[in-house]
Amino acid sequence: MSALRLLSSAARRAPSALAQQRRGYAEVADKISLSLVLPHQAIFTSTDVVQVNLAAATGDMGILANHVPSIEALRPGLIEVVESGNASKKWFASGGFATVHPGNKLTINVVEAAPLESFSSEAVRANLQEALKVAAGNGSEEDKMEARIEADVYEALQHALGSK
Amino acid sequence: MLARRSLARIATQPSPLGAAPKNARNMATLREIELRLKSVKNIEKITKSMKMIASTKLAKAQRAMQSGKQYGLANSEIFQHTPLETPAKRKLFIVVSSDKGLCGGIHSSVSKATRRAIANTEKPVDSDSPIMVIGDKSKVQLSRVLAKNLAMSFNQIGRDIPTFADAAGVADLIVKSDVKYDGISIVYNKFVSAVAYEPEIVEVVGENALKESAGFRAYEMEDDVTKDLAEFSLANAIYAALVEAHACEQSARRNAMDNASKNAKDMIDRLTMQYNRGRQAAITNELVDIITGASAL
């Protein structure tokens, strides 16, 4: 799938200046309108949020209100949404696109995502072993490529779960 | 005068085959009516159960459609900010229908909308614009009129709630094919209400058109992901259309089966009445025979 193909061009450069910052002072007045949607579920539809941290293919980044319009491909990783104050919710997403539109709107289309709490690290570890075995095995090139992508996703998941 | 009398004599002569028993005609008709009645009752049972099945499928399909619509709206946001200066000449039409029938006018509505769009004089498109059809029913209808435009067709989609994997597969095949186009129009049925639907055309901007659009240059991209964005948006748009069309099809099938059940019920009432009248007439005739026979003694 095209969403998974994006991952193979991932280059993890140094995080950009706005990465992982959290405003510790007074309540933020400016919010950005977020639409975080999955094919089978709409998590946010035009909800005003303070900050969104994304795992873009070009590096981790944070989006605040009045961000410059930009298009980012997402690699499998965490999406963290700060709605107000310090409360933030995390989802692990498989990949997709995040677009900041002129007019202070952020739309994120991802193929699959789930709250970080709902993942079990044992299952992740077991599946990672499986995928690495197939990737190093002697199947067809396509199968090995798919297993390599699978293994990358599980590694990202482990990283996300580890740094909870 | 002589002719008239001879005619009358011929009419009263018994037929060479021998007189048929008096009640034979009534019995044959009664048997026919009984057979018809049985078959219409069976049909009523079938259409009633199809209506039930369609109702339950409709409930699920509507829930999936709600999220699918939001997904499609978020996806099409970028196309609203990147309009084309010159409208696309060579459009690829993706017609969304399905393989199954007995759903009212679903398939013919998208086929007609496609034909109207190609014949449109206000916003002209190339007359040999390629068409790709999802679903055998519309493929058959379009191949009768626009056979030379048909580029590709897909089937076995729409048996159950469409998934993103279906849409991604379709988008993948479209992108891998050699079909040339400036823009893409997806023709599908929009869900207006549980009893109404109407055909709708959604525009998807292709990779080259995105690059040429002035609005697109306002967006910053660290790496050039235009191609990936175009393919991903196409899959998203196809998914949103598939899910909505599926919901429309289930609601149309439910309404069609509902009407069929009502008609079958009316037919059953009418036939039952006819059957009973015929039965009573036969009994009355037998009684008349017996009584005239008895009174002749």
Automatic annotation (TrEMBL), chain A:
ATP synthase F1 complex delta/epsilon subunit N-terminal domain sequence ranges: 33-110
Name assigned to this protein: ATP synthase subunit delta, mitochondrial
Superkingdom as given in the UniProt entry: Eukaryota
Location(s) in or outside the cell: Mitochondrion inner membrane
Record's keyword annotation contains Transit peptide: yes
Keyword Mitochondrion: yes
Keywords, in A-Z order: ATP synthesis, CF(1), Hydrogen ion transport, Ion transport, Membrane, Mitochondrion, Mitochondrion inner membrane, Transit peptide, Transport
GO cellular component: mitochondrial inner membrane; proton-transporting ATP synthase complex
Recorded GO MF terms: proton-transporting ATP synthase activity, rotational mechanism
Source organism per UniProt: Suillus discolor
Main location class: mitochondrion
Entries under Pfam families matching the protein: ATP-synt_DE_N
Family from the record: Belongs to the ATPase epsilon chain family.
UniProtKB/TrEMBL annotation, chain B:
Complexes and interactors: F-type ATPases have 2 components, CF(1) - the catalytic core - and CF(0) - the membrane proton channel. CF(1) and CF(0) have multiple subunits.
Species annotation: Suillus discolor
Compartments, record wording: Mitochondrion inner membrane
Family: Belongs to the ATPase gamma chain family.
One CC-aspect GO term: proton-transporting ATP synthase complex
Protein name, as recorded: ATP synthase subunit gamma
Pfam assignment, any one: ATP-synt
Subcellular location, principal: mitochondrion
Claim: Repressor is one of the keywords in the record: no
GO molecular-function terms, A-Z: proton-transporting ATP synthase activity, rotational mechanism
NCBIfam families, alphabetized: ATPsyn_F1gamma
Keywords for the protein's UniProt record, in alphabetical order: ATP synthesis, CF(1), Hydrogen ion transport, Ion transport, Membrane, Mitochondrion, Mitochondrion inner membrane, Transport
SUPFAM superfamilies the UniProt entry points to: ATP synthase (F1-ATPase), gamma subunit (SSF52943)
Signal peptide as annotated in the record: none
Recorded topology in the membrane: Peripheral membrane protein
InterPro entries reported in the protein's UniProt record: ATP_synth_F1_ATPase_gsu, ATP_synth_F1_gsu, ATP_synth_F1_gsu_CS
